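REQUEST ID: PR-0412
SUBMITTED BY: lab tech R.K.
PRIORITY: routine
TASK: structure prediction, single protein chain
INPUT:
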Amino acid sequence: RKAGHISRPANAFILYRMWMMRSAPTVSTELKSIYGTSWNGLFSTLVKHHWDHLPANAKEFWMEMQEDTKTQHAVDNPGYEYRP
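STATUS: complete
OUTPUT:
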């Protein structure tokens, strides 16, 4: 990445995945020891399956977190524009 690159704010799923990673260190450690470098994709697949089955009110919490993150990102990075 270029110096000064500003990443996009995390979406609801990414925030949820980061929380799951911190909440399940034993699972992520076990996957890493069993699957080596490919454990990250497997973990994401498991989290995605869990995300797909979350009740709407649970997802709403993460959508609110997404909006909070987006708001803070705008404060921290005025004038930011997403450029793929």
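NOTES: The chain has a mean pLDDT of 87.
REVIEWED BY: pending
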